[in-house]
Amino acid sequence: MADAAVKEKQAVAPEAEQELTDGFHLIIDALKLNGVKTIYGVPGIPITDFGRMAQASGIRVLSFRHEQSAGYAASIAGFLTKQPGICLTVSAPGFLNGLTALAHATTNCFPMILISGSSEREIVDLQQGDYEEMDQLATAKPLCKAAYRILHAQDIGIGVARAIRAAVSGRPGGVYLDLPAKLFGQVMDAEQGRKSLVKVIDPAPAQIPAPDAVKRALDVLKGAQRPLIILGKGAAYAQADDNIRALVEKSGVPFLPMSMAKGLLPDTHPQCAGAARSTVLKDSDVVMLIGARLNWLLSHGKGKAWGEPHSKKFIQIDIEPKEMDSNVDIAAPVVGDIGSCVSALLEGMGAKWPAAPADWVNAVKAKREENVAKMAPRLMNNNVPMDYHGALGVLRTIVKERPDAILVNEGANALDLTRGIIDVYEPRKRLDVGTWGIMGIGQGYAIAAAVETGKPVLAIEGDSAFGFSGMEIETICRYQLPVCVVVFNNDGIYRGTDVNPLGTDPATTVFVKGSRYDKMIEAFGGVGVNATSPDELKRAVNAAMDSGKPTLINAMIDPAAGSESGRIGNLNPQSKLKKK
Ligand code: OXT
Ligand code: ADP
Ligand code: MG
User: Fold this and answer.
1) Which residue's C-alpha comes closest to atom 56 of ligand 1?
2) What pTM was estimated for this model as a whole?
3) How far is the CA of 3 from the centre of ligand 2 (A)?
4) Contacts by residues 47-55 (CB-CB < 8 Å, ≥ 24 positions apart)
5) What is the pLDDT of residues 171-212, one digit of tens each?
6) Per DSSP, what are the bridge partners of residue 409?
7) Closest C-alpha among 455, 457, 438, 437 to residue 446
């Protein structure tokens, strides 16, 4: 017997009647003590029994068909609840499948913990070829906010506490927790075990902005002729909804919601500049960013989209000090948590804050109305085959009638057109591909949204996007979740019309023509509908939302309707040789 094991045995077994606990129970107790209610994962060696025991203890353990979807579910659970979403996987391949989602959570600033079982340390470290051998801790480290390994049962309490605090404090992100197989079976005295657990006090402490920074920001805002507020998903995450609305309304400044911040104030709000995006980016002189980064989605805060030459003044509210000056100079950085920053700003504005300049407000309003009017007739078409506008026109009305439903959205055209067309009315009701523009979040997000909020979910997905996590419709059926998936089936990626000039294999972007994705869900007892017109689509979605039954609607879209890469075709590199 190895030295450590002998010592362990001596430490725990002096008397036969001694009450014992073990790694399995301590991990479950540590998670429950810290309010974990749901685990998303895939079972297998060495965590199968752990999952069973967690379920028996009252934690809801949802088993997926692929760890990546379970991970995406955990990541969005983190966004929706401000608690770290938990994903549980087996070692090496399961861990790697979950790791994409952990990196995604970190990139999007969502709190998440990936807990993976791992193989025997002694064998892994000597690279002797263990079952699913991999140095998971080292692999995870560069891709997440923090990574920890727990080797001893008595460290489980502190290890779990550390993981939770790392995930939610400051800028939220993904944390990896490595649990070697041996840990689960380690025993220790039950009373000692109880004492070793740690309930994390104030895991995401308020970060109050400096009064000088608040004053500086208000001075810059007050001096603006053409002010703009940009709300990002950090603002949605912060759950400071009432104060954010109060700040926007008190200032009278037009606001532009980033995709997942739509609904913080309704898209139909008179100050919303979503439908005048180009105008407000180009013509504004002072821009207040609340929980939004000046990354590619905002053209890095410079260049043509922002109206060269660069002369904007930016006020940026963010919990991460390093975010300031990341792309352009920030005239008024306000570092702190959004809840605290926004309430300090509101207080600083006092009772006599001047109205935003009327000519600017009216110019934005006129542009918005022009764009909305231009779009309106396209949304009312009942063409067969459907185009995106006809299909989205009916879905837009359905969302308007059901503002508490959660909209999940992925694809290219299916993403970009949905974002522009479907108004969102409440905070955190639109969940999409986020900072990476990632495909595959669809079913995982839909599952977690239904589980965490108890609200109905409408998932609008391109046929390619759907394929990345399509098997999880079995998971949706198994747990009988109120999820209606609409697959915008245009026979391919962007369009279904590409042709391989050699005439051998199909073109790289096309799928089997006329596929019937609705048949897939029928295999699992769900409702499948093939919709060929906007009227059929409307009836099917309404029926699904009324019944709450897992439903997949195959919405047949004209294969020629989409454009390459949706709204971001400009990012595709071009071969000079192609252009004669
Ligand atoms: O102001 P102007 O005049 O400019 O007008 C703007 C607004 O003011 C106006 N507007 C409105 N008008 C009227 N009424 C209303 N209500 C209204 N609202 C707005 O409309 C315009 C446009 O507004 P928008 O959209 O706000 O502005 P804009 O300029 O587009 O904003 C810029 C961006 C960058 C902020 C925005 O475009 C954006 O957020 N884009 C996100 C794009 C994105 O993330 N795309 C996903 C990735 S694409 C690609 O990578 C894909 N892949 C590769 C792949 C990926 N991603 N992942 C993995 C794991 N593997 C591979 C794949 C495989 S997409 C894809 C599959 C695609 O095929 P599918 O079958 O799934 O989908 P289909 O395309 O449907 O076939
Ligand atoms: P979007 O894609 O919507 O523009 P980003 O993901 O780029 O949003 O930006 C979100 C920002 O919000 C990040 O810089 C992050 O640090 C910040 N953030 C997240 N939560 C908070 C919070 N509670 N308080 C302040 N800033 C936050
Ligand atoms: Mg498609």
Assistant:
1) 438
2) 0.97
3) 49
4) 47/88, 47/89, 47/90, 47/115, 47/116, 47/117, 47/179, 47/184, 49/24, 49/184, 50/24, 50/88, 50/117, 50/184, 51/88, 53/24, 53/25, 53/28, 54/28
5) 999 999 999 999 999 999 999 999 999 999 999 999 999 999
6) 432, 460
7) 457
